[in-house]
Amino acid sequence: MIKYIGSKRALLDPILSAVRDLAPQGGTVCDLFSGSARVGHALKGAGYRVWSNDHNAYAHTLATAYVQADQERWAAPAQAILNELAALKPEAGWFTQAFCIDARFFHPDNGARIDVMRERIEAMGLEPELKAVVLVALMEAADRVDSTAGLQMAYMKSWAKRALKPLELRLPALQPAVAGGPCIATRGDAVQIAEKVEADLVYLDPPYNQHSYLSNYHVWESLVLWDRPETYGVANKRIDCKTRKSAFNSRPGIGPALQTVIERLKAPQLIVSFNDEGYLSRDDLTAMLSARGHVQVVEIERPRYVGARIGIHDPKGRKVGTVGRLRNVEYLFVVTPTPVVLADAA
Q1: Percentages helix, strand, coil for the chain, rounded to the nearest 5?
Q2: pLDDT in tens, 23-79
Q3: Cα–Cα distance, 216 to 5 (Å, whole number)
Q4: Which residues, in sequence order, are bridge partners of residue 270?
Q5: Which is nearest to 335 in space by CA: 282, 286, 281, 295?
Q6: DSSP 161
Q7: Are 111 and 147 spatial neighbours (Cβ–Cβ below 8 Å)?
Q8: Looking at the predicted structure, is the pLDDT value of residue 305 above 60?
Q9: For residue 322, what pLDDT band results from cuts at 50, 70 and 90?
């Protein structure tokens, strides 16, 4: 899967353990801020019927492939298309100019591969789930040969070694269908969609500070939408990064927005992921969630993302800031109608 700040890859075990303690085997779990779709993918693999939602197109595409699409239905046709794409002759186009020349996220040789493959995908008229699987394969292939520290806010002064390797398509690790019924992926605003959710448990992993996922991963948004947007700045961000703002990236906005989501959800149990670098404190969240029932908090200490550990550099690669703290604390807030003994907390 793609490199992703805030990814819960290292926290999957405690998250899945908490879900198993609360939700019936084969029950329905909604992931309202799905991001990289790692949690939804793992939940589907554990046999849960999953509803994944996110408001960004690239995240919706990831969830469509990793949550909604079933391995039995789509693996073989997707592999056939990937084989066809891999045989295409590279041809530089808009993507190469925008993200390999004007900005240097990828080597131009790989940009030409991405351009020709993405154009062919768009011309194929694929069914939505199949298109999502193929797009995720291309996104992940590009991610493996990028020249960044994991965010698309800036790129390396010199090419990363991986950027000089040829892009290689691989079939995403699709999950088999689950017995409880089809899993789904939606693209919507969490505040608006919350009241429509029906699930045994809802998992919330909202943005928690000023860093916008759209700005951090704007290249994936443009790759998925293939809309050749107007761009700006050294990183060639999409112009709509200036206007597509989330209340969850605002210090005054996150509290009311999250409060509204929590109030609108009808699910009996919640698990909320948050971080001690967020705009809301542990006490803030505990107070907010206590209106729904009993709150337990699991603390997990983790290293900070790589960009925070190498310091701050300007567009020319000069170090202009120092490294801050190297670790942070991830919180899992487990909310139930009555107290429940959690296996990992026992």
Answers
A1: 40, 15, 40
A2: 988 999 999 999 999 999 999 999 999 999 999 999 999 999 999 999 999 999 999
A3: 9
A4: 202, 335
A5: 295
A6: G
A7: no
A8: no
A9: low
49-54 and 184-187 as β-strands: parallel, antiparallel, unpaired? parallel
Residue linked to tokens 């989330």: 246
User: Tokens 């590279």 label which residue?
Assistant: 90
Q: What is the pLDDT of residues 95-133, one digit of tens each?
A: 999 999 999 999 999 999 999 999 999 999 999 999 999
Scan for tokens 């939940």, then name that residue.
43
Pairing relation of β-strands 237-238 and 312-313?
unpaired
267/194 Cα distance (integer angstroms): 10
- pLDDT number for residue 262: 96
What's the pTM value of the predicted model, to 2 decimals? 0.91
CA distances, 40 to each of 36, 53, 79, 273, 316 (Å): 9, 10, 22, 14, 38
Around Cβ 139, how many Cβ atoms within 10 Å?
A: 24
